[in-house]
Amino acid sequence: MYFWKIHALVEDLKHDRVSQTQFKNYYLVFGALGALFLFPMENIGDRSPGLILLDIAITLFITFIGIQFTFKANGGEQGNAFIARSLALSPS
Fold first, then answer.
1. Secondary structure of 19-30 in the HEC alphabet?
2. How many CA atoms lie within 13 A of 21 on its CB side?
3. 50 close to 78: Cβ distance less than 8 angstroms
4. What pTM was computed for the model?
5. Could you give the CA distance from residue 82 to residue 79 in angstroms, rounded to a whole number?
6. Is 91 helix (H, G, I), strand (E, B) or coil?
7. pLDDT truncated to tens, each residue of the chain (92 aa)?
């Protein structure tokens, strides 16, 4: 992954050297982070910490499995435009 190496990422994107698996991995990381950032905004109320952790674990599991299935349905490494297609099909 290209953490903090923006110039290298730009060059690799220009020359089509970023694989579909790398796109999927970025989508997994940012999907998981996005799911985690939503939890502090939830109305947690009187729920126990155990239920909150279970909710987080289930959400991350569903996010991971959903992205994996979408990646395979797009053709895996031989597919193209994985991010564009999966975002076009997402409910948000």
1. CHHHHHHHHHHH
2. 2
3. no
4. 0.75
5. 7
6. coil
7. 677 788 888 888 889 888 889 889 988 998 888 888 877 766 667 778 788 888 889 989 998 998 899 899 989 999 888 888 888 877 76
